Amino acid sequence: MSALRDRLRGLRAQAGQAVAAPTPAPRKTSTEDLRWLLGVRARSHARPAPAFPARDRALFGEEIAPGLRYTEEHVDWPDPPSPIDTRFARREDTIDPARLLHFDTETTGLAGGTGTRAFMIGAADWRAGRLRLRQLTITTMAAETAMLQTFAGWLQADSVLVSYNGKCYDAPLLATRYRLARLANPLAGLDHLDLLHPVRRHWKGQWENCRLATAERQLLGVLREDDLPGSEAPAAWLTYLRGGPSTNLRRVAEHNAQDLKSLAGVLLRLSALGQAQPG
């Protein structure tokens, strides 16, 4: 029990939380494990901490602050029209593609609320004829503020956000995290194109569903191979934080990068639909 208590105190210290007096480790489900790491007390019986092999802890990108990793990639992607026609979103304006910032988060759950946080933020924009993909990933709880501050630096007063269900999920979740970190919310007041809504208007009832994976398959011909489902992302991050392998966390990053590319591709297809409509 002494070794277990030492491990528990070490994990709490890594997360930047105060170390409580030693108590027996509670028995937790995987969801309760996550709550425990976030500082939420769970009530159940004791169980030994799972042992993970020490191998395969390699991570992507570079560490730009303690516990914060950054990756950047430039990929060939169809050039956007200039300007972007937004009639597909029931608007009458056009947008300079240089103002667009596609973004997507990977989070600790889908329930929302103050206990849910983003452990990865991905963003994509067009630069010099190529699509630039950037990702921020935290590997300790204490790095969240640095991640939020870095992401805020990617946004300008005239930035136009592009997301898939981001108005209802990603943007409110980040707004909560900025508020809890006592930081100004850089997304507040920005123009926002949420592609889920025009996709639903055009293809609801024709496709089996309107998820991004379906839209990218139907509109872009993208078929993902060995893709880690989004529902498994929280477990992949939790496993790494508890000393486990980084294998699935790397797959989360690949999933997030494909989401960003698909966001840009679906936007181009929707813009082309707007151009085809009578003026």
Could you describe the 3D structure shown?
The structure is a single chain. By secondary structure, the chain is an alpha+beta fold. Helix content is 35%, strand content 18%. It has eight helices and nine strands. The strands form two sheets. A seven-stranded mixed sheet has the order 1-2-7-6-5-8-9, sandwiched between helices. Strands 3-4 form a two-stranded antiparallel sheet. α7 (233-241) runs antiparallel to α8 (247-276). The longest helix is centred in the C-terminal third of the chain and has 30 residues, at 247-276. Mean pLDDT is 85; it is low at 14-29 and 40-46.
The unreliable regions are 14-29, 40-46
Structural classification: alpha+beta
Global mean pLDDT: 85
Question: What is the overall silhouette?
Answer: globular
Query: Reading side by side through the largest sheet, how are the strands ordered?
Result: 1-2-7-6-5-8-9
State Rg. 20 Å
Main pleated sheet: 7 strands, mixed
Strand tally is 9
In DSSP terms, counting alpha (H) and pi (I) runs of 4 or more, how many helices? 8
Order of helices and strands: HHEEEEEEEHEHEHHHH
Q: Report the end-to-end length measured between terminal Cα atoms.
A: 73 Å
Q: Strand share of the residues?
A: 15-25%
Helical percent range?
A: 25-40%
Short synopsis of the structure:
The protein is of the alpha+beta class. It contains eight helices and nine strands.
Relevant terms:
8 helices, alpha+beta, seven-stranded mixed β-sheet, 35% helix, two-stranded antiparallel sheet, 18% strand, 279 residues
